[in-house]
# Entry
Amino acid sequence: MVTTDDNKTILDPFGTTIIEDYDKLYEEFGIQPFKPLLNQMPNPSMYMRRNVIFGHRDFDRVLNAMRNHQEFAVMSGIKPSGEFHLGTLMTAREVIYFQQQGAKAFYCIADVESYEDNKIPFERSEKYAAGNIADLLALGFNPKEGYIYRQFTERRVKDLAIIFGRTATLATMKAIYGERHIGLYLSALIQAGDILMPQLKDFDGPKPTVVPVGVDQDPHLRFTRDLAARFHRKYGFMLPSSTVHKIIKGLDGSPKMSKRKPMSYFTLHDRPESIAKKISNAFTGGKPTVKEQRESGGIPEICPVYELCMYHFEEDDKEIIKVYNDCRTGKLLCGEHKQKAIESVLKFVKEHQQKRKKYVDRAKEILQVE
Amino acid sequence: MVTTDDNKTILDPFGTTIIEDYDKLYEEFGIQPFKPLLNQMPNPSMYMRRNVIFGHRDFDRVLNAMRNHQEFAVMSGIKPSGEFHLGTLMTAREVIYFQQQGAKAFYCIADVESYEDNKIPFERSEKYAAGNIADLLALGFNPKEGYIYRQFTERRVKDLAIIFGRTATLATMKAIYGERHIGLYLSALIQAGDILMPQLKDFDGPKPTVVPVGVDQDPHLRFTRDLAARFHRKYGFMLPSSTVHKIIKGLDGSPKMSKRKPMSYFTLHDRPESIAKKISNAFTGGKPTVKEQRESGGIPEICPVYELCMYHFEEDDKEIIKVYNDCRTGKLLCGEHKQKAIESVLKFVKEHQQKRKKYVDRAKEILQVE
# Structure
C-alpha cells in the first residue's frame, strides 16, 4: 500500500512486501530499479512482471546479450541443509527461466557452506543434495544445457577461492559476515568462485552472468564484483550482474520465513495436511469481523497468504489482480481465499512430488553420489 | 659457551646457537629435550649427534616405530620462492635421513603459501619448484619411496583445509600469524593438511609422523596437533611428532640468515666466487689481533663460520671437534679456517650442481610442469 503526499491510497497488487528503505538500496548501495527495464524484456518472468524482482545490478548487460542472442550465463545454487522451501523454489525458477531464455545455466550445491556454516557433514549433505537436484530437474532445469556441481568436488571453485584469498582482508570479511571462523570466510570465497566460474576458459571465457539474489544476499554480490574487478586483468572477468528479489513474508506474519519458526514456512516435501494447516492458521490482512471486512475490505499488502499466491502459486496475472481487488473491496473473505490458496499449493506440491520421483536416480547420477 | 654457577666454562662444540630461553621452550611450550633419546636412536643423524636437533614433540612414538620396524612417515617441504638455501638444505636432509631409516617420505611444494604470503604467481612458482625438486633428488631423496606434490594441485590437502576451517577461530589465527588476510590463514590450514595427509586412508591410514622443524616453526606444529586431536574421531589421526632444530646464524653475525640481508646467506646455486666472498667477509669469533688470538683462543660459540661447518659442511665428528678445540686454544686462526670452510662449501656446491643437472627433467616429470 503506497500513500502519496495528499494521502490518496494508490492500489498496487504488486507493491506488497514492504522493504524498509528502497531509497537507501537504490541510492546508497547502488541497486538499480528493475521496472525501467521491464518493457525491454522480450519475455519477462512472472517475478519480473509482479515487481517481486524489484532491482538489479548491471542487468542491462545481460539484457543486451539476450536481445542480441549473444552468450550469457545464469548462476545460483542451494545450501544442501534440508528440503526445497519457497526461497530455493524462487531462485531455482529464476535459473530455469533464464536457461529457457538461452542462458548457460550453472547450479551449485553449496556443501562447503552447509559444512562451515551449519556443521553438516559432507556424507549428510550429499543426501540432501540428491533430493534438491531431483527437485530442480522436476521444476524444469535442463541438465544437458546446464552444469550442476558440488562445491566440495569442483576443483575450479576451490582454486578460485585460493586465488581470491590473497586480496580478502579481515576487515572486509568482518564487515560482510561478522566475526566468524576461517571456514566461513573460506566458504564465502568459494561462493565468489561459484559466481565467476562461468567466465573461466573451461566454460568459454568471459560473458555476462546474472545471479538472481534475494535483497539480503546483495552484499555477497558486491564482494564478488569487487573480486571480479581485481582479477579482471588475469581472467578478463566481466562484473557479474544480478536481479534482486523481495523476501516473502512468513506465514505467521513475521518479516521472513525461517526454519526457526516452523509455522512461518513449509517445504515442498511436507505432508499435505501439514501445509494445509500452516496456511489455514496463517496471519492475514483481514478485519476482526466479517461485517467489517465486507464493508471496508481486507489489506492484501500485509497478507502472507496473498503473497504466497502472488509470488508462487497463481500463474495467471489476471487472476491474481482479481484476488487483490476482491480482497480490497470485501468481496473475498480470508477463509475463502485460504481455501483457494491451499488448493493451489497442494495441487502444485502433489504434482511436483510425483514428477520429482522420476528424477531421483538422474540426480544421483549427476552428483555422482549413492 | 655455557657457564656454570661457579663461572667455570664448560666446553661444548655442539652448544653454539644460543636460544634465548631453553627453559621456556621446554617448560612453557612443552618442547622436550632431544638428548635423552639420542642413545636410543639406532643410527642418529649428524644434526642429532651435534645437538642441532635439540628438541622434539612426541618423538618417542616415531622412535618406537623405527626400532620395531613399524610404519612411520616423515613430512616437510619448501616454499618455492627461490633456490635452495641452508634452511631448506637442512630440512631436506632430515627428510632424506628419515626416508633412509624406513619412513614413507612426503615432500611438499608449498606453492599456495608462496602465492598467499609472497604474491608469487603459480606460473612462476612452478619454475622454482622444478629446480627445488631437482635439488632434493640430487641430495638423495628417493622418489620411488616418497611422495612429492604441489599444494595447489593436491586435492587432499586443499580438502583437509576446508574440513579443518570450521574449527579455526579468528583468535587462534591471529595469535599464531598476526592480523593477516584470509589467504594467509587458508595457506596455514593447507599446511596442516600437508602434515596430516600421510595419515589418510589413501596412504594406509594413521601412523606416527615426524615433521622436522626449525624452532620458529613450532607454533604451526602445535596448531596442527590441536587439529589432529579435534579430528581424531573422524580420521583416527595420531598427533604428529616433530624434531626441532636450532636456527643457523647469519654469516654477517645476525641471529638468522635472511634474504633481506644478502651478506647473511647464500644459496646452493650462487656463483662460487660469490659464496667464497661472503664466507671470507663473514663475522667470526676471532680476537682483534693475531697475537691475542694465539694467546687466548677464538670463540667458536659465536662464530657463524664454525656453525656453517658444524651444521652442514663437515661430516666427520672428530674433525669438527678438532676445529673447535684448535680455535679455542688459538691454534687455528680465522683466516685459515675461513679458507678451509670455503674449500668444503665450494666442493659440496660444485658436486651438487653437477649432480642436480641430471635431475631437472625427472623433477619436471614428477611435478608435471614444463
Remarks:
- Confidence is low (pLDDT under 50) at residues 1-9 of chain B.
- The longest strand of chain B covers residues 73-78.
- The two ends of chain B are 50 Å apart (CA to CA).
